[in-house]
Every structure is written in C-alpha cells, then in structure tokens.
Write a structure and sequence with these properties.
- α1 crosses α7, α4 packs across α5 and α10 packs across α17.
- By secondary structure, this protein is α/β, with parallel strands linked by helices.
- The protein folds into 2 domains: 230 residues, P-loop containing nucleotide triphosphate hydrolases (Rossmann fold), CATH 3.40.50; 268 residues, 3-Layer(aba) Sandwich (Rossmann fold), CATH 3.40.50.880.
- Strands 10-9-11-12-20-19-18-15-16 form a 9-stranded mixed β-sheet, sandwiched between helices. A 7-stranded mixed β-sheet has the order 5-2-6-1-7-24-8, sandwiched between helices.
- The longest helix has 17 residues.
Length: 579
C-alpha cells in the first residue's frame, strides 16, 4: 500500500479537500486504484451533531456514517463509496484508546499520547486503507490521507506525530507528503522551486485536476512512490470535456434555494454539486438564487395589518419573494428546527399553485406535505410534531425507533431501499424505470402513515415507500409539471458524470426539457384545481390572497446576490502545493 498525505498551512480553507480529491483522481486516471481517509482533529465522535453554520454540511455515507463534507468530494471525484471509518476524529481515537484501557488491554501500563494514542492512529489508518471502496475485491493501490485543520493547531499534534512515525513504519518509497499553503512568488527571482505546483484561481472546480496534470504533479508523486514504471499516462478526456463544457454554458436556469443555512454555502454543498451535475447534463448555466426561508414569512400581527401599505413591507421580504418568483425551479433542502419552516411551507405552496418545478428534500418533503394538508385538505393546524407536539393533525411524526435524549448517531441513517408503488410516475422514470432504488437517509421524523389515505384521496401520490409500506419515501403531484418530495437525500450519490435522476428532473422541468428526458411525463395542460378560494390583491405585480388560513404575501423587490457567487469551489490566488 502506498500513502499520500495532504496537509495544510498558514490559513485554513485553502482547498486541501479538493486538492486531495484531485490528486486521487489524477492517480486513478493513471490506472491505480485509490481510496481516501479524512482526519479531523476535533474531539467530536463525528460531524453529526455539528452546526452547518460552523462546519458545513454533514455528509452521509451508505453505512450511515455522518462525516465531514470532504468525504463527499472524495466520493464525487473518485466515484467510490467510503465507510464511516474513512473519517478519523480525535473523538474516535480517544474513545478507542479509553475502551482498551477499561478492558485492561494495556496490561497495567500508564496510557499516554505517545505511544498509545499515536499507535492507535497508525493502526486505524492501516486497517481502513485496506477496505475496498471501488466495488472491486482486494485493497486499493494508493490511500490519499487528508489531515484537517492547519499545521500548528494543538489538537493536530498527536496526528502529526503519528503520521511522522507512520512514514518510517511503511518505509521509503511508500509515503509522499503534499503540503498545501500560500506561497509567495518573489519578483526578483521570478520562479518557484522544483516540486511546487501552483493552483491559481480557476473557472470551475473540475479544472483543479487538470492544473495538477499540466504541471506534472502526478509524475512527482509517482516518482516518490516508485510507481512511475507501472502506470500509464493520465486519461482525463471525459473530465476535460466536462470542465470545458461547464465554462461554455451561457443559457441560464435559475433555481431558488429556500434554505435555513444560507449564510454558508458549504451547508448545502452536495445539493449545489448535484444541481451543477444536472445543469451541465442539460447544457444549462446554473444560477442559484439564495432565498432565506425566514424572509418569506409574515412573522407578526403588525406586518399582517399593514401589509397593503407597500412601504410597510420589509425590503428583505420583498427581495426574497422577488427571487422566488423569478426562479425557473424551487428547491427546499433538509434542515432541523422550526426556524424558517413557515417560509418553506410558503415556497411549497407557491410552487404547487403556480406550477413551478419543485423538489423537496427530507424536511422539504415534510413541509410540502404540511402545506398540502393545510391548504388542500383544509386542516389549518396541520403540522409536524417536531414544531407543534400538540397539533390535532400531525401529518409528520417522530419515528418510533428514534431517541429524544441522545442526538449523535440516533437518526434513521444511511442507505435504505425505496420501492416504487407504480412505474408510471416521474421519479421511477427518472431512475430508469426501476422497481426500487437505494438512497441515503438522515431524519428523525416521517410522514404520518395514518394520514396517507386522506392525503392521497386529495391528489398527493406517495409513489415510493419502504419495505414495510408504512414509511413514505417519495411523493408526487401527478398533474403538476414537476412536484416531487423525497424523504432521503439524493444529492449524496450524485456524480459529475452521473447526475441524480431527481435533480436532473428538476433542472429539465425548469428549462422545459422534461418531456424530452422522459416522454409522456404526465404534464397536464389544465391548471391543477387545488388552489384555495380567496380574494387576490395585486400591488406592483405581487399577489396577496386572503384565504381561509389568513393573508399570504408574495412580494417583489430587489435581488439578493449569492454570497460572492462562487458555487464551483474557486480558491484564492497564490495557493501552492508542495510535493
């Protein structure tokens, strides 16, 4: 087994994860089998309980592992399936050491960082590196290890010591160190030293492996690993074509992302990547309009009573509704807690009533069901017990096997099979007319099985269920151009060359290509007769309906630009890779 270690210095956020993924792809393109390990020095056992604002999204693996988002990059770039053990944390290592101490495995010795913790780290790396992740038998040829954080962080020190020992343990020719850092170029000298690779700003993230290839980074790494004589030249023809195509796209498709964690785009990283994969497949330039779910809401009685006075409407709400109404499609992603939920419900209602392509994921599906129950079934207090434990019409309930006392690792996690109840539905067709599909889950609440008959009689079809038939996985509105909700997270298995079918359906519907993608997709010419009756007032092109559940406001306003507009992972000037 050969090992490539990727570390970072000076500042965090330089792009170690993408660099590690790109190195792995480059080595794979040379004919080698590659696996990956991410080391996170924090004391958490895993990323499952960490805030998306602080750490970005929690990426979920087939085995239910809740891991760092960099493992998502590894899976997307290398098209592999990793395990929970491919993400090492300080918490996991110390738990393993303490468990051994409690069992008496150290035979009365004083347990110390060196050698016990450092040995545990090395043993873990060697064990996990041997696990096949590409669907083939036997171990990979190369394991790419990324050490999170920055060299010098106190929590990283046991790992740095362990990896230093590990380089001697595996021997010369089996270990290569790659350090990612800000490297100045002195004008007097005009050049950098040998084995320094420059990763400058790029137009899209898929160009990073091409930068490495053009500067012969693979040869430098292969030389250290004594592999130059046994590999071929890198074959990145398809990857290059995809990167070039992404840059040439100009015809836009606008997707409104109605989320709770819009302050950090990494909170929805896999969703963004899945949208990108699908938009490139449809030959469209992706534009994500960030809509803060809370900004769509009417939150106070004062706002309701003054809503007809245009100047009294908060500018943020006007801007949020303007973005939503200007989008070609609407995506409501997952999340936890009641903040912004009413805004997600309003977005689902707007998509349903105005026949806008819609995809609701996890909580997004649940809010779509709540909206349907309230506004079509006229169950005005319909809700999830997550937000209102005393609701008389609980259309979303806590799962019986969940835990209300322990948060970490207690949800319904990992790959589960969804069985289509009919193949005559959009989602089954988008998956290739299969009878079942395996997707990854992460949730504590589910649609109430006792309300399914009532919901379906009103027109909401639950076309995908679990093996028991009691757990709802996919819902659709058959007469809507594209209105799909899923309990699982299809974004986690989307790949650059193999976009998720449901994301592909959303993008295709948003740009008028769905009938080409799945002929006879069921699009109806007649409008869906599911709107509430009420009085509509138009102000400056905005509709306000005085319906049975109170006043709803859809306002236009100035647009909000996405945070720095960098959706494709462009990195700061001057990043350098030392090999």
């Amino acid at each position: 087994m050969k090992y490539v270690l990727v570390t970072g210095g000076v500042v965090s956020g330089l792009g170690k994860g993408v660099t590690a993924s790109s190195i792995g792809l480059l080595l794979k393109s040379c004919g080698l089998r590659v696996t990956s390990i991410k080391i996170d020095p924090y004391l958490n056992i895993d990323a499952g309980t960490m805030s998306p604002f602080e750490h970005g999204e929690v990426f979920v693996l087939d085995d239910g592992g809740e891991v760092d988002l960099d493992l998502g990059n590894y899976e997307r770039f290398l098209d592999i399936k990793l395990t929970r053990d491919n993400n090492i944390t300080n918490g996991k290592i110390h738990r393993a050491v303490i468990n051994k101490e409690r069992k008496g495995d150290y035979l009365g010795k004083t347990v110390q960082v060196v050698p016990h913790v450092t040995d545990a780290i090395q043993d873990w790396i060697e064990r996990v590196a041997m696990i096949p992740v590409d669907g083939q038998e036997g171990p990979a040829d190369v394991c790419v290890i990324e050490l999170g954080g920055t060299i010098g962080d106190i929590e990283s020190m046991p790992f740095i010591e362990a990896l230093g020992q590990f380089s001697y343990r595996v021997g010369s020719g089996n270990f290569c160190l790659v350090h990612v850092s800000l490297v100045p170029v002195l004008s007097v000298v005009g050049e950098q030293a040998e084995n320094i690779i420059t990763l400058h700003d790029v137009s899209n993230i898929w160009r990073i492996p091409l930068l490495l290839k053009d500067q012969k980074a693979h040869k430098a790494i292969l030389k250290v690993l004594n592999l130059l004589s046994v590999v071929r030249e890198p074959d990145l023809v398809d990857w290059t074509s995809r990167a070039q195509l992404c840059d040439k796209l100009h015809d836009p498709v606008k997707i409104a992302m109605v989320g709770k964690y819009n302050g950090l785009s990494d909170a929805y990283l896999s969703v963004l990547k899945a949208l990108l994969h699908a938009s490139v497949a449809c030959r469209k330039k992706l534009i994500v309009e960030w809509v803060a779910a809370g900004d769509l809401e009417l939150t106070t009685k004062e706002e309701v009573t003054t809503v007809l006075v245009l100047y009294a409407i908060p500018p943020t709400r006007m801007a949020a509704w303007d973005l939503l109404k200007g989008a070609n499609g609407i995506l409501v992603p997952g999340g936890f807690g009641d903040r912004g939920v009413q805004g997600k419900i309003l977005a689902a209602e707007y998509a349903r009533e105005n026949r806008i392509p819609f995809l609701g994921i996890c909580l997004g599906m649940q809010t779509a069901v709540i909206e349907f129950a309230r506004n079509v079934l006229n169950l005005q207090d319909a809700n999830s017990t997550e937000f209102d434990p005393q609701t008389a019409n609980p259309c979303v309930i806590f799962m019986p096997e969940g835990s209300k006392t322990h948060m970490g690792g207690t949800m319904r996690l990992g790959s589960r099979t969804t069985y289509f109840q009919t193949t005559d539905c959009k989602s089954a067709k988008l998956y290739g007319n299969v009878t079942s599909v395996d997707e990854r889950h992460r949730h504590r609440y589910e649609v109430n099985p006792s309300m399914i008959k009532q919901l379906e009689s009103a027109g909401l079809s639950f076309v995908g269920k679990d093996e028991t038939g009691e757990r709802m996985e996919i819902c659709e509105l058959p007469l809507h151009p594209y209105y799909v909700g899923v309990q699982f997270h299809p974004e986690f298995k989307s790949r650059p060359g193999k976009p998720s079918g449901l994301f592909l359906g959303l993008i295709a519907a948003a740009c008028g290509q769905l009938d080409t993608l799945i002929p006879n997709s069921g699009r109806a010419n007649q409008p869906q007769s599911l709107k509430k009756k009420g009085i509509t007032v138009m102000i400056n092109g905005s509709s306000m309906s005085n319906g049975s559940s109170g006043m709803k406001v859809h306002q236009n306003g100035n647009s909000i630009k996405a945070a720095n507009g960098l959706l494709n992972g462009v990195y700061a000037n001057g990043n350098g890779v030392h090999i």
